[in-house]
Design goal:
MetI-like fold; two-stranded antiparallel sheet; elongated
Length: about 625
């Protein structure tokens, strides 16, 4: 009962505080039209208080008036800065001309000196003259030049850039804790003074500018709860993580870019020594062969359609397989956490998108379409942890002399037994019948002038010939020849054999997301106007040509959305690797590496740097998605 009462009281207090904040924010916005000076004073007081909270929360300042043995009054700094900033805004709002510039710049210098007085000794910067000059000059010129290119004033942009450059040169480059209080006071004085100078050279707000400000403020007020939650849960932690990535393992001492340097010099994270082996691997030779097959097929089919190169399944498929195998050859030799992540992104995105699109096309308007799609989509209901556990049991390998409980190894060992028994002749016979059927189809296609059918049948027959050879010759499946010549079972250690154990970890992820891709693509395909498809068929286009030249261009935006979504999700993969290998056997990925470094080894600096790398990798994809949505909304 007591917990229920506390919950109700908490809800009442939360609603009451929210209502007061909402009403107070609206009253604050009203002051912009009633009393601009009052509005400015309130705004600057609030900004100063928040600035003080940030300084105190990040342990950048301290206040013990009576020395180290006296009471800690650091908590008084936010209200003190709120009052001082409020007076700064109150007295400077209606100033004009040179007096406005002097007031804002001079007041900023004074406030910065006050902050420097209360700065902690651990944050004193050991300043150097070159960064102090080079950074403000470079960023100021770039910012001002960008403003000039956009048709805006050069000076405001130059001052803004120089202020940011001063922040980098005074506090970013130097070693913190190695300077003096005088250097700290100078650093803060010119930083806050630069902000004040930028405000001082700006034009005072007129009536129209105040009206527009009030309209924007109303929008922010209504969005404030959501923006506040996002800021508290996402923005502030992100900024904090970026800041910690420049600190040491205990997140106490500034080390600059040392953590990022460690990331790209640690061989367990980034290793490129084996790159010459890429071009000597068997996968590379296969990729070259498939590329030649795709180019020859596209050229032959192009002659039939009067084109230099025909884009179709028989030309695109070998070329795509060639790129795929070359990527596998590269990622199998370039090792480390970063390359594992890139391997995940490439493989999962390509296979999940390709399989989802293929299933959507094959199932479109087929019998039992809904049932088939429901079964394929069903794995989406399983969590990554559950999928990892399921597939770990499927991959499990017991000693060869015992019965295999893992599905894949049980099938593999059974296939090895069959290929060394009389059953291999039955298997070879069945495969021979399939081969004869494929050759007959190829012949009929050649007679009918359908190069696509003929080449496709021959390409499909190639692996059948290889299987017949293996069954009748050296054998296939899970077996090993013992020293005495006997045949014994042999299992595959799917999760331990480096480097392709990474690929087996990707299978559960693909298994889950193929259904997602299929549903999205199926809806997009059904949205393609039937008139376009009928017109293509009337013009003599084949099914393949209709798909590649009509359907694919129509659903290209949907393909882009699915691909970018998969890249973002895969770049953050964590659960499957954590459950199945915990990053052992050279299967580590960035998210799991970040977790292990930060929360197992307590190396917060390197863990934060790895988290920033994930964020930077995902950010461009998110930007492209947002830009595309904005264009579609216009």
């Amino acid at each position: 009962m007591q917990q229920l009462i506390q919950t109700i009281l908490g809800i009442v207090v939360a609603v009451g505080v929210s209502a007061l904040l909402f009403v107070g924010a609206n009253k604050w916005a009203d002051q912009a039209l009633v009393s601009w000076r009052r509005f400015a004073a309130l705004s600057w007081a609030l900004g100063g208080a928040v600035f003080g909270v940030v300084l105190v929360g990040n342990r950048l300042v301290a206040w013990r008036p009576a020395g180290d043995g006296g009471p800690d009054l650091t908590w008084l700094l936010p209200p003190l800065l709120g009052v001082l900033f409020g007076l700064w805004g109150w007295l400077g709002t209606e100033r004009e001309g040179a007096g406005r510039v002097l007031w804002w710049a001079g007041g900023g210098v004074v406030l910065g000196l006050i902050v420097g007085v209360f700065a902690r000794s651990a944050t004193f910067p050991a300043m150097r003259i070159v960064p102090l000059v080079a950074w403000p000059a470079a960023i100021g010129l770039l910012w001002g030049g960008w403003n000039a290119v956009r048709g805006r004033r050069f000076l405001p942009g130059a001052v803004s850039g120089a202020t940011v450059g001063w922040l980098a040169g005074a506090f970013g480059v130097p070693t913190l804790g190695g300077g003096t209080r005088l250097e700290a006071m100078m650093g803060w004085a010119l930083l806050v003074g630069g902000v004040g100078l930028r405000i001082g050279i700006g034009s005072p707000f007129g009536v129209e500018e105040r009206r527009r400000l009030v309209e924007r403020a109303r929008t922010v007020i209504f969005l404030a709860p959501a923006l506040g939650f996002i800021g508290w849960a996402l923005v502030f932690p992100t900024i904090r993580t970026v800041y910690m990535s420049f600190l040491d393992r205990r997140a106490e001492r500034w080390v600059g870019l040392a953590n990022y340097q460690r990331t790209f010099t640690d061989p367990t994270i980034f290793k490129v020594e084996g790159w010459p082996e890429i071009f000597r691997s068997e996968l590379f030779y296969w990729s070259v062969g498939l590329a030649l097959v795709g180019l020859i097929a596209g050229r032959l089919l192009g002659r039939q359609s009067g084109r230099a190169f025909e884009v179709g399944g028989l030309s695109v498929t070998p070329l795509a397989a060639s790129v795929f195998l070359f990527a596998f050859a590269a990622f199998s030799k370039l090792r480390g956490t970063i390359f594992n992540n890139l391997w995940w992104i490439f493989t999962v995105t390509i296979l999940a998108t390709g399989l989802g699109l293929a299933i959507a096309v094959l199932a479109d308007r087929a019998r039992f379409e809904s049932v088939a799609k429901s079964i394929i989509f069903m794995p989406m209901a399983i969590s990554f942890v559950g999928a990892g556990i399921i597939w770990r049991f499927m991959y499990i390998a017991r000693p060869p002399d015992r019965t295999q409980t893992g599905v894949l190894n049980a099938l593999w060992v059974w296939l090895g037994r069959v290929s060394h028994s009389n059953g291999r002749y039955v298997a070879a016979l069945l495969l021979g019948v399939a081969l004869a059927a494929l050759l007959y189809v190829a012949w009929r296609g050649y007679q009918a002038g359908s190069n696509s059918l003929a080449i496709g049948s021959l390409v499909t027959a190639a692996p059948v010939v290889w299987l017949i050879y293996r069954f009748l010759g050296p054998g296939i499946g899970g077996f090993q020849t013992m020293p005495d010549g006997t045949i014994a079972p042999a299992t595959v250690l799917f999760l331990q054999e480096i480097p392709f154990n990474n690929v087996w970890l990707m299978v559960p992820f693909i298994w889950i997301y193929v259904g997602f891709c299929m549903v999205i693509f199926s809806a997009a395909i059904k949205g393609v106007p039937s008139d376009l498809i009928e017109a293509a068929k009337v013009d003599g286009a084949t099914e393949a040509q209709t798909f590649w030249r009509v359907v694919v261009p129509q659903i290209a935006p949907t393909i882009g959305v699915v691909v970018t979504t998969l890249i973002v999700v895969v770049a953050k993969v964590f659960d499957i690797v954590k459950v199945m290998t915990n990053g052992n056997f050279d299967t580590q990925v960035l998210a799991n590496e970040m977790w292990q470094r930060a929360f197992t080894e307590l190396d917060f600096g390197l863990g934060s740097a790895l988290a920033v790398l994930i964020f930077v990798a995902v950010l461009p994809i998110m930007y492209l998605n947002i830009r595309r949505m904005q264009k579609e909304a216009l």
